[in-house]
Amino acid sequence: EITSLLSLCGGQFSGEQEIRVNSPFWILNIPSEEMARGLMKRTVCAKSIFELWGYGRSAGELYASLKNYPVDKMLPYLQSDSTYKVHIHTFNKTLTQAQKIKKIDALEFLPFKGKVNLKNPEHIFWILEDYGMNPNNVPEEPFHLYFGRWIADGQRELIESYSVKKRHFIGNTSMDACLSFIMANHGRVKPNDVVYDPFVGTGGLLISSAHFGAYVCGTDIDYNTIHGLGKASRKDQKWRGPDENIRANLRQYGLEKYYLDALVADSSRPIWRKGMLFDAIITDPPYGIREATRRTGSPKETVKSVERSTENHIFVSSNYHLSDIFFDLLKFAAEYLVMGGRLVYWLPIYRPEYTEEIIPRHPCLKLISNCEQMLSSHTSRRLITMEKVKEFKDQDENSYLLDGQYMPYRGHNSFREKYFSGVTKRIAKEEKDNQK
Fold first, then answer.
1. Which CATH number applies to 158-301+312-404+412-421: 3.40.50.150, 3.40.640.10, 3.30.70.3450, 3.90.1150.10?
2. Which residues form a coiled coil (predicted)?
């Protein structure tokens, strides 16, 4: 998320910067405070950002580092007519008030000239201490210490204010608000973009993009969901009400002006005119667990015909394999994204069989990031971010069928079976079969 937002703000992530996986603190080289503030106006992953004045693996190293920090960079924030306060934050350890005061008093050598104001200071300084990630083995002294000037907080409050629990219209698979904002940030959604979701469902992913000023639209094969009809998904409610639809959700957050429309359509049969139409495609395809994976069929196929009703508006439908869903999605993104536009989607994975080779590829799309969210001990889903780097040509349409890599992706089709199987149950069966 941070890497995507840095590029959106005009910055660049330096590969030389150290990423400590086992620490909640991360040192970034950002060229300006303005860019740092722009970053924090979007991120839901980062809590706060500070201008780093000193760093060390012990208190002595921290103090030495602070004494080496240029005084001319400190002075604008330490003037006699200014007010300030010093916070202390310890990760994985709780300090008494006396211990905190002792650590703050140890910074007396810094040239503070202003007055302390605990309620409304002009400048806030933080001591940050990292005691590791293991709550069962907390060291006496921190592994890392930092001191810096607070610049801005992230947008963590969006997770609560956009909570699905408070939303008018939800479904069985409505996307969690936090993940929805992370996806919009991975997609580098910005004001006046056009963002599309081909599996729009209840429109949870449209809300986060609209919050960032993008115009949003989507399609879904389910007539009832698009029109807000049929049975409700809430536990204590039988039928959906008149204000339960995608437009009402956006209206709830004051974002209706960004809503273009949602159409009943089959994502396997694109309805759009040729051309690069979308700045970002952000979606969560169905995995076949809670919602069926289906597409419109034809009378020639051996399929089940269903009469029109409020329960199911699709006349004829057939199975839509996961491997086909992902390849249709990548092909669509390659054709309809603008150059530099991004595709962000979730890919379900059976962990014992996972390798990077099963990530779907397309010659027009470059893989930007691949992040894991655990679902169970044996399943997870990967947040895949891809960027369009090559103009789509007709010969690219079925290129994935030619490169010999299509077969590994067929494993996605049995994800539902593997999701419910469980590793222990599977191993026991294999052992029993081997004994026969």
1. 3.40.50.150
2. none
